[in-house]
TrEMBL record:
TM annotation in the entry: none
InterPro entries to which the protein is assigned, alphabetical: Alkaline_phosphatase_core_sf, DUF229
Name of protein: Uncharacterized protein
PANTHER family linked to this entry: FI08016P-RELATED, PROTEIN CBG19234
Length: 603
């Protein structure tokens, strides 16, 4: 009797749980079917369908301003000093005669204090006699008119000094072994589309003359420069689980970044001479809201130069100048001198050059350097340094603040940075894969793997290793086309694979209300005393439903996303949020909510 009862009970439980399972699956399936109706437009949607827009599409043409005012530094001051062929700092006596009084020109060494990335030590003033060669790496120069001592001239020199002793022999050996160099030139906030429209000469030169392959599916993995360049440089995802908290909250590093396992370390360990240069000292990748590096991260590190230049007065109408020289020139020249020296001395090298101040705020100003950039690339090609170097010309993400950001194309390109891969003849066998991968969804994690292949001499047709980091695959070998945003670290907020449907006003209003609730809860939590005003909805400016491609969607873990953009009072901010809804829960805000208009007016 007992046995029968037990069996009956067991059967009952089984039936119940089977029923629960059936119901569970039914709920999931219903939710899935409700949103994923078969495509009406005949698109099979099996894979990520990459957005493909014309850089000069009619819908955004009004945002593109041409021509942009050329950089004019010549009117700032007469060029009074120069370095002669023996690297002696000389006052140009002919130019000096233009002054009524007598001139006194002085030079000051710039040094980096130990363990401090935010200050510089500026040495005592030495009067320039023209007799001594310029010894120090960085120096600043000033000329005053006598007897008034009125400052009439200010500039600086960034020299590429001799290779540090510990790397001098090794870098020659590494080159002799045939190790390839890596040259990275990055432009802040530069999308693929904006590079094509603002820098057409350079783009044309890269793709035609240098045979560079431009990645059409490259998507950002985080909001700002830091969140994208950390994965590119280290394979770690900023702010995610594999990253230790000491590297910050995702968008900014916490303190010092010395322990970041950046590829420059791998290259240095393999004997390469390394260089890292960024222009805009206030907002550099590892210093913005953080402390940078205790010790210089690379053998050549340009930051002290920019800090010192920022301390000079630099009277100029044009904020793009230091004295009579455009700021970008100091960066490009330093990079070129570094590469020239390494090439002439037969050394293996790695360099990461990042230009920020011309493209951080708006999409148009960068166009003024198109021919300079092309010229730089032409000279690099002519020098022969590209014959044994991998060259990456890239952005980090697209523009985040300019008014184009409020258009459909602007939103897409904010997520899709430029990346041109130029391979030397020794890597020609990777060209077919590179070209195929240009059409596939990729992220900075793939960029990291590609650079690591060079660092680790993993350059055969078959990879020695699946990956060096956490998520990516090298661009050198075929990448499966069925990868999803999630697979390669692209948060759903920045995913571009969605099929989008415009939402009816009532649905949009409900989602906007949820977004506001979320934001006000956040404001209240960070400001319990209530000093900040609660946000009020002014208008819903945009709302879409975002559906994954059928190839990567599955009913078991299916979720639908919504993107809503609202304008709020009293700040006038445009805020773009993403909400996620699955079979079990109502829409909830996920990931970053982005402010997509500027906090202040710049231009
Ligand atoms: C010195 O200044 C004169 C007059 O400004 C200029 O023509 C000349 O090119 C300068 N020389 C050098 C070496 O810079």
């Amino acid at each position: 009797m007992r046995k029968v009862k037990l069996v009956r009970a067991a059967a009952f439980v089984l039936v119940l749980s089977a029923a629960a399972l059936v119901r569970h699956n039914w709920v999931l399936q219903t939710f899935y079917n409700e949103h994923m109706r078969p495509d009406a437009d005949g698109d099979d949607g099996a894979q990520c369908k990459l957005p493909d827009y014309d850089p000069l599409d009619a819908s955004i043409r009004d945002y593109v301003v041409r021509p942009w005012p050329k950089i004019d530094c010549a009117s700032t001051q007469l060029p009074l000093t120069y370095l002669d062929e023996r690297k002696r700092l000389v006052v140009n006596r002919t130019a000096a005669q233009k002054y009524w009084g007598q001139l006194e020109c002085t030079v000051q060494d710039v040094r980096r204090p130990p363990g401090d990335d935010d200050h510089v030590i500026i040495g005592p003033k030495k009067v320039i006699t023209g007799e001594e060669g310029l010894q120090s790496e960085f120096c600043i120069v000033q000329c005053v008119e006598l007897p008034t001592r009125r400052v009439v001239y200010e500039t600086g020199y960034a020299q590429v000094v001799d290779v540090p002793a510990q790397q001098a022999k090794r870098s020659r050996e590494a080159a002799k072994e045939g190790r390839l160099n890596v040259i990275v030139l990055a432009l802040e906030s530069m999308s693929r589309l904006n590079f094509m429209r603002q820098l057409p000469l350079s783009h044309e030169y890269i793709t035609n003359e240098l045979q560079g392959v431009v990645m059409k599916g490259l998507t950002k993995v985080g909001d700002n420069t830091y969140a994208n360049m950390v994965p590119f440089l280290s394979g770690l995802a900023a702010g995610y689980a594999e990253m230790s908290p000491r590297f910050g909250d995702g968008n900014t590093p916490a303190g010092y970044s010395d322990e970041l396992p950046a590829t420059w370390r791998d290259f240095s360990a393999a004997g390469h001479v390394t260089m890292f240069a960024e222009d805009d000292a206030a907002i550099t990748i590892f210093n913005y809201m953080a402390k940078g590096f205790k010790e210089p991260p690379t053998h050549y590190y340009m930051r002290p130069f920019w800090l010192a230049m920022d301390q000079q007065a630099h009277w100029a109408w044009d904020s793009r100048c230091y004295g009579h020289i455009p700021k970008f020139r100091f960066l490009f020249d330093y990079m070129e001198r570094f590469l020239g020296k390494m090439h002439a001395e037969n050394r293996a090298h790695f360099s990461f050059t990042f230009l920020s101040h011309l493209s951080h705020e708006a999409i148009n100003p960068i166009q003024v350097i198109d021919s300079d950039l092309k010229g730089l690339l032409q000279r690099l090609k002519g020098s022969g340094v590209l014959d044994n170097s991998l060259l990456l010309v890239m952005g980090d993400h697209g523009n985040r603040f300019d008014s184009i950001r409020n258009t459909v194309i602007g939103r897409i390109e904010e997520r899709m940075p430029y990346l041109a891969v130029v391979v030397p003849p020794a890597l020609d066998h990777f060209r077919p894969s590179l070209k195929a991968n240009a059409e596939v969804l990729t992220s900075w994690h793939d960029g990291y793997e590609t650079v690591m292949d060079v660092a680790m001499l993993n350059l055969g047709p078959k990879s020695k290793k699946l990956r060096y980091g956490h998520k990516g695959l090298s661009l050198f070998r075929p990448i499966p086309a069925d990868r999803s945003c999630f697979d390669i670290g692209i948060p759903s907020v920045y995913c571009v694979c969605w099929k989008e449907q415009e939402l009816p006003t009532e649905v949009a209003a409900g989602l906007a209300a949820r977004l506001l609730e979320h934001l006000n809860a956040f404001i209240h939590a960070t400001d319990p005393e209530g000093r900040c005003a609660a946000l009020l909805l002014d208008a819903v400016t945009d709302a879409q439903k975002l559906l994954p491609a059928t190839g990567v969607a599955h009913y078991r873990d299916f979720a639908v996303h919504f993107r809503v953009t609202v304008r709020v009072r009293p700040s006038g901010a445009l805020l773009e949020g993403t909400l996620r809804q699955d079979a079990w829960s109502p829409p909830q805000v996920v990931g970053d909510v982005n402010r997509i208009n500027r906090y202040r007016t710049w231009w």
